[in-house]
Amino acid sequence: MSGHKDKQFGDRLADAAKARQAALKRFQARPTADDPAVAERRAAREAVTAARDARTAERTAARVAQEAAQAAEAAARAEEEARLATETAAREEQQRVERAAREVELEAERKAARDARYAARKARK
Fold this sequence. Notes:
Radius of gyration: 50 Å
Helix content: over 70%
Structural class: mainly alpha
Strand content: under 5%
Order of helices and strands: HHH
Number of helices: 3
């Protein structure tokens, strides 16, 4: 701590100027944009980005294909269910018509039997 108090103001200014000069030299020593090493690193970053984008596009395409397949499967399932529902409705309607026809026949037979009994009773008198 005593080192700071021992230095004069001029010494501190000189030290600060030396530090600024050192920082400037480090900044100027950096490679420029047209340096081959910088271009190589940039190309490597771009290659990594392109590969990442390709993988993302591939995953997206796979997801879209899977969703399309699921949609097609759901549509086929819905079509099959609709066909089965139509067949079931037609079969139930046919059974209802047949029951109605049997009821009409039974009613006709009952009426014929009743009429025969009535005619037999009339014939006995």
